[in-house]
Amino acid sequence: MRHLLLAAISILVASCSSSTNKPQTASQVPEQTSATVRKLPEPTESQEPVAAGPTRVEMVNVNLHLDADLILHIRYLTGKFLSAKKAQPPSCDDKLSYIVEIDSGKISMSMASMSHAMNTYVFGEPDAPLKKLQLSSEGSQIRQKGTLQKGPGIPFEMLGTIGATQDGEIRIHPTEMKVAHLPVKGLMKLFGLDMAKLINTRKTRGVSVDDNDIILNPARMLPPPQMRGRVTAVRVEGDEIVQIFGKERADPATGQPRSNYMAYRGGILRFGRLTMNNVDMQLIDADPRDPFEFFPDHYNDQLVAGYSKTTASGGLRVYMPDYDKISRPLTPAASHASTASHASSAQRPGQ
After folding, report:
1. Residue 113: what pLDDT?
2. C-alpha to C-alpha distance for 117 and 114, rounded to whole angstroms
């Protein structure tokens, strides 16, 4: 019996020692408590951490098409590309998903574009007080002509200065005004009237009245994508209204070589079926001899018509033709057929 006990103890000791030398299967690994879980190593300089914070955006010499007739000439812009939807990153494919928050910039708009914006968006409601607006420049002032919706409609004309308010909005101060071709500024004072009583702004968007001044809110008066920032100066230059955000600086050099682009860095950004973390992407004008014509509604058409390169650090450079230089906008079906054709050609031997 004693020999049998010694043999059993020897076998037990041998099995224990052998189990410490052999790898354990998943069923044999004991469950670790929080006290025994090994911490992951901290990221080193060679390990790129997951992106945090908003995506930074920079634009140079871009004509941003908000619709077919409304174009913003972005001479330069720096700011943030923020999400407009809770818990979702911005997406280049959905202009309602992001907000461009401007830190500094210089953005101009032609009088034709401004007239279109006023008629379509600011006074676009059927019962809006002003209709058929036409804006033009007259030296450093702005002239507005249109129809006042009173009875059958009364033609009016106003000449005024333009500038920035302390709240970062745009103020138009009338220096001359005619209704039905008759001067009315003196009559308004005589009868105790002001612009607020003459123009009902309840059916308008992005406009208010302060005494006899018209106040425009650029962030509310324009269609998406939403762009917001503090306007620090406004002036008329030729046939354009120029808005300054932040501290004004010189326009980027216009000599050769030149690059017109939209750059995004940091944060998270979606485009197509891809999601980029710690974003490093540039949309670059394929022909920098004139401004980069970019239309968010047809961004995919421009993308398909261009080409892209990946940088050594994993960044993306997309070279796009101007929107107005695309032979024809591609429908989703045509875009799919074009992509399939390129893929088929790439698989053919000898090509």
Report:
1. 97
2. 5
Q: Does the residue 21 lie in any domain? A: no
* Residue 154 φ/ψ region, left for φ over 0, alpha for ψ in the -120 to 50 degree band, beta for the rest: beta
Instruction: Identify whether residues 137 and 241 lie together within a single domain.
Output: yes
Spell out, as residue ranges, where the chain has pLDDT lower than 70: 1-52, 182-201, 253-258, 328-351
Q: What is the pTM of this model?
A: 0.75
Token couple for 165: 């308010």
Residues 96 and 296 sit within 8 Å (Cβ to Cβ) = no
CA distance 70 to 64: 8
SS3 content of the chain, % helix, strand, coil (to 5): 20, 40, 40
Helices (H), 22-63: none
Q: Give me the count of residues in the chain.
A: 351
pLDDT in tens, 56-70: 999 999 999 999 999
Same domain assignment for residues 162 and 238: yes
**CA–CA gap between residue 58 and residue 79 (Å, rounded):** 7
Asked whether residue 41 is assigned to any structural domain, the reply reads no
* Domain assignment of residue 66, given as a range: 55-105+248-336
